[in-house]
Amino acid sequence: MIAVESINKQFAGRRVLDHLSFTVPDGQITALLGANGAGKTTCLRIITGLLRADAGRVRLGGVDVARDPMAARRQLGVVGDREGLYERLTVAEYLTMFARVQGLCGKELDRALQSVREELELDELWQRRTRGFSQGERMKVSLARALVHRPRHLILDEPTRGLDVLAARLLRRTLLRLRQQGTTILFSSHVMSEVSELSDRVLVMAGGRIVGGGSPAELLAHTGCDNLEDAFVTLAYGAAVGKRTEEEPA
Ligand SMILES: Nc1ncnc2c1ncn2[C@@H]1O[C@H](COP(=O)(O)OP(=O)(O)OP(=O)(O)O)[C@@H](O)[C@H]1O
């Protein structure tokens, strides 16, 4: 389980997260929604230990991320918003390096590399240096890096941004398979169709807090809307703009 407990974060005196609290249940896919600038990336960066909260704490499977970052990292895979691949390394070298950092070696390392290579269809990229990789190719390598040590928790910040149809489909299928295997997944997105397809639970952020949460069906029932986009808009921006106007095509 991921537990976010009353987190505050300010940038230059402006509060972005305001006693933000939520939990992400084990073995489920949870989507984090919010308008541009709502604080999703800030929240995800705090969960992954890349950024420190001003107050509050995050626990990953019971481990306090700020107090024991190494233990937290072992059970965490991250696909972030600013992916830095090491351009001089081949995919094989890059993934080997990250797997070793996670403590894998010998046969276990070989098995882990083979597993992500097959799962993410990396054969053609395997011996290529990552310099010049397309958005979709970078995503595959980032996801492979996040998964190579088979973490219990996976965090993804807008993972399908910039992906073509097939790459986005591969990513969605991979997430659904990981859920079947028991991985706990939290991802941010602006794409309502993928949120509907993937999510067991949806969390809506506004004003630095969670303003709505539940299964997609619960959010529809709570807002009285008949689709997730309207429910999101109602929760994130207020009821006045929640429903589509008559002129706007559905
Ligand atoms: N390092 C920083 N310094 C100053 N302000 C920052 C910093 N990081 C984030 N912010 C501000 O915090 C707010 C939340 O940003 P964040 O990137 O978390 O939003 P988001 O919900 O991920 O947005 P988007 O959907 O556009 O990606 C924004 O107003 C942003 O400008």
UniProtKB/TrEMBL annotation:
Database matches in Gene3D superfamilies: P-loop containing nucleotide triphosphate hydrolases
InterPro entries for the chain: AAA+_ATPase, ABC_transporter-like_ATP-bd, ABC_transporter-like_CS, ABC_transporter_ATP-binding, P-loop_NTPase
Domain ABC transporter per the UniProt entry, residue ranges: 2-232
Keyword set includes ATP-binding: yes
UniProt cross-references to SUPFAM superfamilies, sorted A to Z: P-loop containing nucleoside triphosphate hydrolases
A Pfam match: ABC_tran
Transmembrane segment boundaries: none
Record keywords, A-Z: ATP-binding, Nodulation, Nucleotide-binding, Transport
Entry's Gene Ontology molecular function annotations: ATP binding
Record-stated family: Belongs to the ABC transporter superfamily.
Name assigned to this protein: ATP-binding cassette domain-containing protein
Organism: Microbulbifer taiwanensis
Species classification: Bacteria, Pseudomonadati, Pseudomonadota, Gammaproteobacteria, Cellvibrionales
